[in-house]
Write a structure and sequence with these properties.
Strand content: under 5%
Radius of gyration: 20 Å
Order of helices and strands: HHHHH
Largest sheet: none
Number of helices: 5
Structural class: mainly alpha
Distance between the termini: 45 Å
Number of strands: 0
Helix content: over 70%
Length: 111
Amino acid sequence: KKQTRKMTDPKAKEAQIKAMINQRFVESGEKERLKEMLRAKLVECGWRAEMKNQCRELLKQRGESITVEDLVQELTPRGKAQVPDSVKQELHQRIRKFLATNSSGSSSSKP
């Protein structure tokens, strides 16, 4: 039988690594903690209220002709772009810290 994915395939190896990392985040509870931190920061900086306002504006403009899918499609790029850099940086820092303290020695060690 043919193997559908070879471990030498860089995309397959990358997908496997991503799955392992995600599993560690979930099993440790860190994923949920990061989501809660992100929710709190987005509320605190006014991002959530701003997105709510933009949603209301779209509903006023388009009325009943807009679907949930339309709202998501239009607001997602705006929402991602409007997340403050400080929030993104804190999230990235916490992810890097988690990975550094929970690596199984497979990543390069730092002096």
